[in-house]
Design a protein that fits this description.
Elements (H helix, E strand, L loop, with lengths): L19 H14 L7 H8 L8 H18 L4 E3 L8 H12 L1 E3 L1 H11 L1
Parallel strand pairs: 1-2
């Protein structure tokens, strides 16, 4: 799956140009997953007193998490499988499903789901 094109966060020959709606969804996902972290790198860098020219690993991880579930939703996949507890929090999982994530499962849940289905 090609991710949404975000400067410094993707390969330019393996991404898609997002529409306004795509970036709106990415922002909404970020705000659900990381409500305390500014969406824009510049705001985050200013808040943390960081060099604007060097992306912080924590902010990058937050953006990558948002881009990953964005891709899952964009490509209408059935299962988003992750052991990252942030995606499974009661206050977040339902909102992400309403955005179109369908099912968000841990690896164990996915194993049992598939075993039961076969």
């Amino acid at each position: 799956m090609k991710p949404i094109a975000v400067w410094g966060m993707c390969f330019w020959d393996w991404c898609i140009w997002g529409s306004d709606e795509d970036f709106d969804l990415l922002r909404k996902i970020h705000l659900v997953l990381f409500p305390e972290t500014p969406y824009e790198w510049g705001e985050y860098a200013k808040q943390k007193n960081l060099d604007i020219n060097i992306l912080d690993q924590t902010w990058k991880n937050h953006r990558f998490d948002s881009m990953t579930i964005w891709s899952h939703i964009k490509y209408t996949n059935d299962f988003f499988i992750t052991n990252d507890n942030n995606f499974h929090k009661q206050t977040k999982k339902g909102v992400l499903i309403n955005f179109g994530a369908r099912k968000i499962l841990t690896t164990s849940e996915a194993f049992h789901y598939l075993k039961k289905s076969s």
